[in-house]
């Protein structure tokens, strides 16, 4: 006979906020996570947070630094936190510019504390690693408050993207339609309908499973930020807040081209390591069968490079950024133009 026992109730989060989410006005505070370690026996991870509230209304949760080497989001959100005034807001804006703060401080995709990838670790655990505890706080405390969620990303140190805002193909077509409308309001140069190849543990998935309108971005990469991509982030977040009815005015709409990423055929992966040669520049047209990258083995001369060919026609949406590539690395992403 199989005996089952009820799951133990989740513990309260160890994270304590210094802000009051019900209080009107502007609050600049911290999410304090106790973290005992060799150099600080009773130390803490202190994650910056800003809350701007003016009465009842929609709640927007804005985050950057989910991966610590992606900078357009943090730049736009620190700026927004410094400039947003309560009288301009109807409802609430919660701003966390650097979600995985240890990774952000380290300039790395994953946390130097526990090597946790924030965007693959949801729903997290209140009694887990530092990264799991941060994810758990977002899962059980911040996400339930939100009506609309914007999480900024770019390519980090290893990828470079054409600048786009995106939402996911969902089973709930009403939520999908509202997310796509928010993407269109963001008005990046490109807008994308995405089908993730690895959705388990993502912040995106956690928000969508709670029925939240969720949108994300890829705004460049290479472990830096460009003036143009930061401008896109700043205009885009203001547009989303206007679209949600939180900020006054209409979104400043710019022309956008719609992309579809329908399957794993969008992605090309290196089978061998070597010197990566991009054969197509970002945003350029590619046809099915075109060579989009070559990997040159560097251990010996006289050997032909591995050719990576497009599995479908479209535009080059992303490419491997460093000059060297390892087996299994994503070399390129092709997206289908739908407009």
Describe the fold and architecture.
The chain is of the alpha+beta class and 339 residues long. It has helices at 72-83, 101-106, 130-142, 173-186, 203-209, 227-243, and strands at residues 16-17, 25-34, 44-54, 59-63, 91-96, 148-151, 159-161, 164-168, 190-194, 213-218, 257-261, 267-269, 274-278, 285-286, 291-296, 306-309, 314-320, 324-325, 330-337. The strands form two sheets. The chain has a 15-stranded mixed beta sheet that branches. A four-stranded antiparallel beta sheet has the order 16-15-13-18, with no helix packed on it. α4 crosses α6 (227-243). The model has no long low-confidence stretch (mean pLDDT 95).
SSE blueprint:
Blueprint: E1 16-17, E2 25-34, E3 44-54, E4 59-63, H1 72-83, E5 91-96, H2 101-106, H3 130-142, E6 148-151, E7 159-161, E8 164-168, H4 173-186, E9 190-194, H5 203-209, E10 213-218, H6 227-243, E11 257-261, E12 267-269, E13 274-278, E14 285-286, E15 291-296, E16 306-309, E17 314-320, E18 324-325, E19 330-337
Parallel strand pairs: 4-5, 4-6, 6-10, 8-9, 9-11
Antiparallel strand pairs: 1-2, 2-3, 3-5, 7-17, 8-10, 11-19, 12-19, 13-15, 13-18, 14-17, 15-16, 17-19
Helix pairs in contact: 1-6, 4-6
Largest sheet: 15 strands, mixed
Provide the helix percentage.
10-25%
Rg on CA atoms, Å: 21 Å
Alpha plus pi helix count: 6
**Domains counted in the coordinates: how many?**
2
Low-confidence stretches: none
- The CATH superfamily name of the largest domain is Zn peptidases
The percentage of residues in β strands lies in 25-35%
Q: Write down the CATH class of the largest domain.
A: Alpha Beta
């Amino acid at each position: 006979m199989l005996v089952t026992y009820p799951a133990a109730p989740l513990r309260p989060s160890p994270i304590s906020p210094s802000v009051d989410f019900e209080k009107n006005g502007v609050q600049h505070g911290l999410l304090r996570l106790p973290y005992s370690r060799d150099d600080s026996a009773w130390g803490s991870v202190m994650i910056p947070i800003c809350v701007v509230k003016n009465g009842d209304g929609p709640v927007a949760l804005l985050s950057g630094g989910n991966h610590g080497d992606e900078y357009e989001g943090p730049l736009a959100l620190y700026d927004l936190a410094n400039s947003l005034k309560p009288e301009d807001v109807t409802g609430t804006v919660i701003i966390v510019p650097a979600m995985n703060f240890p990774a952000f401080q380290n300039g790395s995709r994953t946390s130097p504390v526990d090597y946790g990838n924030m965007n693959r670790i949801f729903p997290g655990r209140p009694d887990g690693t530092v990264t799991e505890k941060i994810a758990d706080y977002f899962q059980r405390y911040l996400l339930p408050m939100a009506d609309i969620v914007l999480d900024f990303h770019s390519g980090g140190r290893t990828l470079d993207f054409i600048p786009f805002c995106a939402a996911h193909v969902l089973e709930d077509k009403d939520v999908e339609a509202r997310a796509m409308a928010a993407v269109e309001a963001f008005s990046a140069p490109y807008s994308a309908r995405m089908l993730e190849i690895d959705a388990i543990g993502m912040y995106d998935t956690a928000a969508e499973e709670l029925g939240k309108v969720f949108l994300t971005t890829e705004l460049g990469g290479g472990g830096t930020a460009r003036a143009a991509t930061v401008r896109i982030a700043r205009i885009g977040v203001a547009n989303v807040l206007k679209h949600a009815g939180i900020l006054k005015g209409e979104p400043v709409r710019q022309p956008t081209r719609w992309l579809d990423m329908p399957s794993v055929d969008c992605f090309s992966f290196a089978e061998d390591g070597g010197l990566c040669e991009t054969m197509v520049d970002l945003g350029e047209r590619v046809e099915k069968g075109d060579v989009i990258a070559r990997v040159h083995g560097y251990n010996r001369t006289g050997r032909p490079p591995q050719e990576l060919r497009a599995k479908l026609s479209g535009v080059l949406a992303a490419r491997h950024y460093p000059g060297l590539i390892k087996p299994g690395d994503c070399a390129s992403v092709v997206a289908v133009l739908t407009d």
